[in-house]
Automatic annotation (TrEMBL):
Entry keyword set: Dioxygenase, Iron, Metal-binding, Oxidoreductase
Organism of origin: Chromohalobacter israelensis (strain ATCC BAA-138 / DSM 3043 / CIP 106854 / NCIMB 13768 / 1H11)
GO terms for biological process, alphabetical: carnitine biosynthetic process
Entry similarity comment: Belongs to the gamma-BBH/TMLD family.
Essential cofactor(s): Fe(2+)
Protein origin, superkingdom: Bacteria
Pfam families noted in UniProt: TauD (PF02668)
Lineage: Bacteria, Pseudomonadati, Pseudomonadota, Gammaproteobacteria, Oceanospirillales
Signal peptide: none
The protein's name in its UniProt record: Gamma-butyrobetaine,2-oxoglutarate dioxygenase
Keyword ATP-binding: no
Domain TauD/TfdA-like: 139-373
GO molecular function: gamma-butyrobetaine dioxygenase activity; metal ion binding
E.C. number(s) listed in UniProt: 1.14.11.1
PANTHER family: GAMMA-BUTYROBETAINE HYDROXYLASE-RELATED (PTHR10696), OXIDOREDUCTASE AIM17-RELATED (PTHR10696:SF25)
Length: 407
C-alpha cells in the first residue's frame, strides 16, 4: 500500500516477518521533520524525532556493554528534527538535524508503540469462573529445568497465578524454588511465615474466619509483588481458597459503570496496619492505571482501608463505586474455588489477583499453611532473561555481573 509523503520522499521497505509473507511499510516526515510516521501491517505508528534520537541504538548513544545511555537526553535541542528517513530491509534509517545518523530495527519500533490502546498489557489472559484449566507446574521440574521454570513464570504472568504441586512438606519447602527466581521479601513477620489459627491473633489471617477477596499488604511501600502460599496441612472443615481476577472485575466495572471505574482510579484511600512493634501506612487507588491507561494494579483490603473525610458528595460517589466493585469481586461468576492439599502451593500476582478463603473449623483437623513474598522486579527479570537465554538472544550486560546499582 502506498502512502503519500508530506515533506519528504516516502520510502517503502519490506520486512520479513514470517515465511512466505512480506509486510510492506512506508515512512514519511511531518511537522518539518519533528514527527515520523511509519505505516506497517495496515497500521499507522507515529514517533517524535526527539524520542527516536534519544533511543538511538548505536554505540555512540548507548554503551554496548550495559545498554545504558551515554548522551544526556535533556540537553538535546528541543527543535531537533529528522532530516531524512528511509527503510531498507528490516531497518529504518534516520538522519537528524544534529548530524547524527542511525538505524532502528523495525520489529523493535513496532513493539515499542501502543497502537491498539489495549486495556491490559498484551499477553495477559483475563479469566472468570469458567476458566477451563488451572495453570499448573511441578516443583521438581521447575527446580531442575529452565524450560519448565520459564513455562511456570510465563503462566504466572499470563494468568496472574499458578498452582505448583509436589512442594516438600517442610517449613521452608518453597525456599529452593524462590532461590531460582529472586530473593525472598522479608517483612515485619520475617521471611516465610505461618498462616494458621492462633490465640491472640495479630492479624485476621491468623483466625478461623472467612476472608473476603483481598490483595495483601497495600499498606506497604512497595507492596509485595507475588504471594507464595504453601500448604502443609489442610484437614480442617472448610478453608477453601477463592481466586478472582481483579483485572477482569475492573474491566467489567468499566463496561458496566464507567463513572464508577473512573472514580476508583482517581481517589486514593490510605491503608494502615499496626501492632505492638509495627506501624505501616501507604495509599493508592483501588484500580490503578499505567501511563498508557492500561490496568496496572488493583488494591482491595477492607480490613485495612481508611478513606479520608473528603467532601460528602465525593464520598457518596466513592462508596457507590466501591460497592459495585465489591459485588463484582465477590460474584460467583468471577470466582474460582479450590482446596489446597499438602504439598500444593499457589503463587499469586498481588497486583492483579484477589484471594480469599472460606471459614474453617478445627474439629476436622489442622489447617497449616506457610506464606512468603517475592517482589515483582526480580520475578519479571527472571522471566525475561530466561526467555532470552533459551531463545538464544544476547542481552546487554550479559557478559558480566553488576556489582552495584544506579544511584
Amino acid at each position: 500500500m502506498s502512502w503519500p509523503a508530506s515533506q519528504a520522499v516516502t520510502n517503502p521497505c519490506q520486512q520479513w516477518r514470517a515465511p512466505f509473507m512480506f509486510i510492506s511499510a512506508d515512512v514519511e516526515l511531518k511537522d518539518e521533520g519533528r514527527r515520523l510516521i511509519l505505516h506497517a501491517a495496515g497500521q499507522r505508528r507515529e514517533f517524535a524525532a526527539l524520542w527516536l534520537r534519544e533511543r538511538a541504538p548505536d554505540d555512540t548513544t548507548l554503551d554496548t556493554r550495559t545498554g545504558q545511555r551515554l548522551i544526556e537526553a535533556a540537553q538535546l535541542p528541543l527543535t531537533l528534527c529528522a532530516e531524512t528517513a528511509s527503510c531498507e530491509a528490516d531497518s529504518l534509517h534516520v538522519r537528524f538535524s544534529d548530524g547524527h545518523a542511525t538505524a532502528y530495527a523495525l520489529n523493535d519500533l513496532l513493539l515499542d508503540t501502543d497502537a491498539d490502546h489495549a486495556e491490559v498489557e498484551p499477553g495477559l489472559r483475563l479469566w472468570d469462573a469458567g476458566l477451563d484449566a488451572l495453570p499448573q507446574a511441578t516443583f521438581a521440574s521447575a527446580l531442575e529445568d529452565d524450560g519448565a521454570l520459564l513455562a511456570m513464570l510465563e503462566d504466572l504472568h499470563r494468568y496472574g497465578f499458578v498452582k505448583v504441586s509436589g512442594v516438600p512438606c517442610e517449613a521452608d519447602g518453597m525456599q529452593p524454588l524462590i532461590d531460582r527466581i529472586g530473593p525472598l521479601r522479608r517483612t515485619n513477620w520475617g521471611g516465610i511465615a505461618d498462616v494458621k489459627s492462633v490465640a491472640n491473633a495479630f492479624d485476621l489471617t491468623m483466625t478461623q474466619r472467612g476472608l473476603e477477596p483481598h490483595t495483601d499488604n497495600p499498606y506497604r511501600d512497595p507492596i509485595p509483588g507475588y504471594i507464595w502460599l504453601h500448604c502443609l496441612s489442610n484437614a480442617a472443615d472448610g478453608g477453601d481458597s477463592t481466586l478472582t481476577d481483579g483485572f477482569m472485575a475492573a474491566q467489567r466495572l468499566k463496561a458496566e459503570a464507567p463513572e464508577d471505574f473512573a472514580c476508583l482510579t482517581r481517589l486514593s484511600p490510605r491503608f494502615r496496619y499496626t501492632d505492638a512493634t509495627t506501624d505501616l501506612e501507604s495509599e493508592g487507588p483501588l484500580i490503578e492505571l499505567d501511563s498508557r491507561g492500561r490496568l496496572a494494579r488493583v488494591r482491595y483490603s477492607n480490613r485495612t482501608e481508611r478513606i479520608a473525610a473528603h467532601d460528602a458528595a465525593l464520598l457518596e460517589r466513592y462508596y457507590a463505586a466501591r460497592q459495585r466493585f465489591y459485588r463484582l469481586i465477590t460474584d460467583e461468576a468471577l470466582t474460582v474455588h479450590l482446596k489446597l492439599g499438602p504439598g500444593d502451593m499457589l503463587i499469586m500476582d498481588n497486583y492483579r489477583l484477589l484471594h480469599g478463603r472460606t471459614a474453617y473449623q478445627l474439629e476436622g483437623g489442622v489447617r497449616h499453611l506457610r506464606q512468603g513474598y517475592v517482589d515483582r522486579d526480580s520475578t519479571a527479570s527472571r522471566r525475561r532473561v530466561l526467555g532470552a537465554q533459551l531463545a538464544g538472544n544476547a542481552r546487554p550486560g550479559a557478559s558480566h555481573t553488576a556489582q552495584g546499582v544506579n544511584p
